[in-house]
Amino acid sequence: MAQQQPPLDQQLDQPLQQSAQPPREDMLSCVTALEAALLPCLPARELQAIDRSPHPSHQIDVERHARDFMEAAKKLQLYFNNLQREDQPTKAELLRMEIATMEEELKTKNELIEKHERLIQGWRKELKDQLVKHNTELDRV
């Protein structure tokens, strides 16, 4: 606890303000800030001893570390919520995807219709040929 770390707000705000960083680096910097805020809170026995300590500076130190950790956790949560929102397609994108799906379905159905029309035309030709054949047979008889 004797180490002096830069203020948590500086640690967390810098990565979030720099939009040039790739998302992975943003996440890593948020996690690093969260870890930096958590590390002073980890020695539980020491904290319990300080917690019971009558010195008000020790109480403030524990409260500051807990507050720093909670702020870092909130910023990390906001970061992940923003990522989640970015991953969700907009209404316009959803409509484009739906239109593309419908166009593909329409294309498939048109191809199927053309295939069946060709089959029907083939059958009509065969039936005409058979009709002509039967008519010539009847004419001979």
Automatic annotation (TrEMBL):
<dbReference type="Pfam" id="PF11594">
    <property type="entry name" value="Med28"/>
</dbReference>
<dbReference type="InterPro" id="IPR021640">
    <property type="entry name" value="Mediator_Med28"/>
</dbReference>
<protein>
    <recommendedName>
        <fullName>Mediator of RNA polymerase II transcription subunit 28</fullName>
    </recommendedName>
</protein>
<keyword id="KW-0539">Nucleus</keyword>
<dbReference type="InterPro" id="IPR034456">
    <property type="entry name" value="MED28"/>
</dbReference>
<feature type="compositionally biased region" description="Low complexity">
    <location>
        <begin position="1"/>
        <end position="22"/>
    </location>
</feature>
<keyword id="KW-0805">Transcription regulation</keyword>
<feature type="coiled-coil region">
    <location>
        <begin position="92"/>
        <end position="133"/>
    </location>
</feature>
<comment type="similarity">
    <text>Belongs to the Mediator complex subunit 28 family.</text>
</comment>
<keyword id="KW-0175">Coiled coil</keyword>
<feature type="region of interest" description="Disordered">
    <location>
        <begin position="1"/>
        <end position="27"/>
    </location>
</feature>
<keyword id="KW-0804">Transcription</keyword>
